[in-house]
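Chain A, query sequence.
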Amino acid sequence: MMTIRSLCVFCGSSNGVRPEYALAADALGKELARRGIRLVYGGGDVGTMGILARAALAGGGEVTGVIPRKLYELVDHVELTELIVAADMHERKSTMYDSADAFVALPGGIGTLDELFEAWTWRGIGYHDKPVGVLDVAGYYAPLLAFLAAMVAEGFLAGEQLEDLVVDTEAGALLDRLSAKGPLTVFKRPERSKGPRYPASP
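Chain A, predicted structure.
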């Protein structure tokens, strides 16, 4: 079992339409503070990002925000334990990944998905061995998980890699399962279809 001292959380700059999203962000922030796990996140003050950070701080937790300069100049900020202003989005993500022992995605938009898939891809090809998880609030990620299962069925994603993604509906349970993850598995290439390698000529 690994010790998670810091958790990078990907989440939204809006609250979404369901109250469950804000409640889940608040609950995760409080749970991180309770466990003494430093929160690493995108540094914003709005949406579930702000709710998450304020909950962790209110619980006595430590919070590191990492924000690109372009956004830093446009948005308000929570008074954090630490705020790192990165040159651009690439430096922001690299700093967040280096600063965390594990990764979790809350419901969010395309930025959240970008960060989730990059962290998960990097684990899958051996750039890091930090566990990656999803907090599936109110079934938000169910369509995505179904699509990922379809990718496995179509031979574009190894089943072991999908199984490696930790999914739970409750913050405490998700953190426990991330801590219990073993070392990185070397994933095999999805089996090639037995059909023709290239489309047949007309």
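The longest strand covers residues 63-68. DSSP finds eight helices and seven strands in the chain.
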